[in-house]
Amino acid sequence: MTGNNQNDEHAFTDPDLDETQPETDEDFMAMYEDSLRAIRSGHVIEGEIVDIEKDGVLIDIGYKSEGLVSKKEFLDADGNLTVRVGDRVEVFLVRKEEDGYPVLSREEAVRDKLFDKLRDIYDNDGTVEGKIVSRIKGGYMVDIGLNAFLPASQLDDKPVKDPEAWLNKPFEFKIVQFNKAERNIVLSRRVLIEQERKELAEKTLATVKEGDIVDGVVKNITDYGLFVDIGGINGLVHISNISWGPVRHPSEFYGVDDPVKVKILDIDAQNKKISLGIKQLTPDPWAVAPEKYPIGEKVAGTVISLKNYGAFVSVEEGIVGLISVADLSWTQKIRHPNQVLKIGDEVECIVLSINPEKRQMSLGYKQLFPNPWDTLHDNYPEGTVIEGVIRQITDFGIFVGITEEIDGLVHVSDLPQGHKKIEEHYQKGQTVQAKILEIDRKNERVKLGIRQLAPDPWTVLPEKYPPNTLITGKIANIAEFGIFVEIEQGIQGLVHISEIPAESGENPLETFKTGDAVETRVLEVRPEQKKIRLTMKPEKPGEQPHEEEPPGEEETGFGSLLKEKIEQQKDNQ
Fold first, then answer.
1. Which of 519, 572, 527, 528 is nearest to 549 (CA)?
2. For an engineered disulfide with 362, which of 268, 352, 459, 570 has Cβ 3.0 to 4.6 Å away?
């Protein structure tokens, strides 16, 4: 017994043994408690599989009791178990339980290790590959082995038109925010694009020069031009440099992502700005336009715009001419060119003038056809009686069609007597006869008359009313110089104030009023002047007509008061 005890003592004093081993049970328990405290929740620890049950795997992690992990976490894609008893595996200690199993997770351990790997990538400014799996509020969810958030603004360097088109596609991303404790990772694809473009832009700026012709892609379209990517840097094609011809909006020529060849016009390396041109790839068509389109030449083009003042016709790429409204028709009064043409019409024109310095070309459309005014006089000489349709009625007369293109005016003074109220006797579309009185070729006007179709009654009045013929008629008008008496319809004579009997000191005109019937006597008929002189005084033997001149035609229906007074003054002299 004693010997055995001595042997036991020697065992504890063996120099090969660790002298730090606990010497008492109390020391051993203290060290055991320290080891338990070292097993912290929220960390990955290693343990040994000690048993595999129906739904779980028991793992010894050096704690008071084994931990239990769901068996599902150790199955492969085909449902086969991937571990066995005795295997050492890493698990994540979710929490320690004072009573019962500690809660472990194999999947969380894998995620935790992945977080550590992603932290290294984040710290070293690296990139990760992931697949955009779904859209969420404010952006997208990306699978990079675990879920990460991609803000919508960080997907691309330009606005995204179709968000759904980006789903289930792999891309390279930069980690811009990382917080393992909160399990939060934020990604950006835009940062990588901008970084790549910056590097490419520096390379492009170092290699290109003014005058170079390069390939590009339209990246953006504005009212003032196109932004074209020529290799990591966007250059501007101003709207004035898109085409030699007019450009209303750049979108009429190009769309976003369209490939385009451009010429470098100017480089501002300091501000990283490049001015580009497209029209400069071809010669200026206006440089040879005068030789190509001489005045009087017939050209074909397409109507591209209509304005109040005329129609713009594209003759070729870069050359646009204007047909003024005045050059659309020889006879029709064109208020707007859409009365003759419409946008898209293919038309022939005559070159009227060309100014390459001002980049202007004047075209004529009516010049393709004969001018009907050139032959009107030959076909309808003055005195010709025509039959036409009333095309327009105005306060001052009616317009009657002579040909399909030309109308003539019957002035109200050339309508039959009694037709002064035009609407009572004429309607639009009515067919009438008229005589051509005058053709004004210079001003393109035709004067017509309807009353001239009947014989002139003045030619027979001298015989009908010889001197001293007594006539009873109604007073048509009273003027300060006499009385106008209607002899018959449309015919008036003048009783001058000196031919009205009156007592001394009285105004003889005061005893008359319009509409009174009076008896007069003919002194003289002047058919060439369309005037009749009357008197109310009795006839005297050997009486000669007075020389006072009656008023002009306007007061009588045939002359003006001013003319009458002038003639009266001449007679008095």
1. 572
2. 352
- Using CA atoms, how far residue 453 sits from 162, 384, 385, 414, 461, in Å, is 81, 10, 8, 10, 18
Task: Please give the distance of CA 473 from its chain centroid, rounded to a whole number.
Answer: 73
Nearest-angstrom CA–CA distance, 329 and 365: 7
Q: Which CATH superfamily is domain 125-193 in?
A: Nucleic acid-binding proteins (2.40.50.140)
Give backbone dihedrals phi and psi of 333, rounded to 5 degrees, phi first. Answer: -85, 100
Task: For residue 214, give every residue at least 6 positions away whose Cβ sits within 8 Å of its Cβ, in sequence order, or none.
Answer: 208, 230, 231, 261, 262, 264
Is there a contact between 200 and 208 (Cβ–Cβ < 8 Å)?
no
pTM, two decimals, is 0.47
DSSP symbol at 335: S
Q: What is the DSSP letter of 550?
A: P
Q: Read off the amino acid at residue 145.
A: G
Could you tell me if 51 and 58 are in contact, meaning their C-beta atoms sit under 8 angstroms apart?
Answer: yes
Q: Residue 137 and residue 338: Cα distance in Å, rounded?
A: 53
User: E-strand spans in 293-442?
Assistant: 298-307, 310-316, 319-324, 346-355, 360-364, 385-394, 397-401, 407-411, 431-440
Structural tokens at position 294: 């001489």
Q: Check if the beta carbon of residue 467 is closer than 8 Å to that of residue 545.
A: yes
pLDDT at 561: 40
In angstroms, rounded to a whole number, what is the distance separating the alpha carbons of residues 421 and 179?
98
Residue 164 carries which DSSP code? G
For 353-386, the DSSP string reads: EEETTTTEEEEESGGGS--THHHHHHHS-TT-EE
Measured CA to CA, the distance from residue 538 to residue 561 in angstroms comes to: 28
CATH architecture of 208-281: Beta Barrel (2.40)
Q: What is the mean pLDDT of each run of 10 residues along the chain (573 residues)?
A: 40 45 54 48 76 84 78 82 85 69 77 86 91 92 91 88 89 92 90 88 87 93 94 92 89 93 91 92 92 95 94 93 94 90 96 94 94 89 93 93 91 84 90 94 92 83 91 92 89 91 75 91 91 89 53 40 41 41
Question: Are 248 and 300 a contacting pair, CB within 8 Å?
Answer: no
Phi, psi (deg, nearest 5) at residue 116? -65, -40
Here the tokens at position 170 are 């792999």
- Domain 25-111 fold is OB fold (Dihydrolipoamide Acetyltransferase, E2P) (2.40.50)
CA angle 266, 271, 272 (to 5 degrees): 65
Decide if 208-281 and 460-572 have a common fold.
Answer: yes
CA angle 541, 545, 550 (to 5 degrees): 150
> Which among 349, 368, 358 is positioned nearest to 299, based on CA atoms?
349
CB 39 within 8 A of CB 61: yes
Residues 6+ apart with CB under 8 A from 534: 471, 485, 493, 494, 495, 499, 520, 521, 522, 523
Q: Cα–chain-centroid distance for residue 262?
A: 26
CATH number of 286-359: 2.40.50.140
Assigned token pair, 69: 């992990």
Q: What are phi and psi of 66, to 5 degrees?
A: -70, 155
